[in-house]
Amino acid sequence: MAVIGAVVAVASLVVTIVEGVRARRHTKFLAHHDHWWQRWSWIAERALSEAERDHDAAALMARAVLSRSWSTDDDRWMERALDDHEFQTENRRRKDTQRDR
After folding, report:
1. Strand, helix or coil at 22?
2. Which tens digit of pLDDT belongs to each residue from 1-18?
3. Sign of torsion, CA 68 78 52 35?
4. Do residues 43 and 34 make contact, with C-beta atoms less than 8 angstroms apart?
């Protein structure tokens, strides 16, 4: 009976450790996601601003984020999305200007 109790105790310990590791990994992911969202929200707000100075700040911050060793594929995707948006916006402006002539 003592052996069964010891086996149950060890199994319980293993389950607790595995769950602890899983919970820590999940918490770390959530923290990373939250910081990612804050960074790119800040950058996007300035990139889409009307003020040229804000555009410069967004470009500087995007370059800083992308030059870090911890930057991810999501960071690079977000930069491409902002670049695509800027390119499309510039094309629309160019077409509107040509129509006005």
Report:
1. helix
2. 788 888 888 889 999 999
3. negative
4. no
Tokens describing residue 73:
């594929």
Rg of the chain in Å (alpha carbons): 24
- Structure confidence by residue, pLDDT tens digits, 32-62: 889 999 999 999 999 989 899 999 999 999 9
Buried-state track 22-43, b at ≥16 Cβ within 10 A, e below 16: eeeeeeeeeeeeeebeebbeeb
Model-wide pTM > 0.90: no
Q: Does residue 47 contact residue 61 with C-beta atoms inside 8 Å? A: no
Residue 65, Cβ density class (10 Å: 0-12 exposed, 13-18 middle, ≥19 buried): buried
Contacts of 9 (CB under 8 A, 6+ apart): none
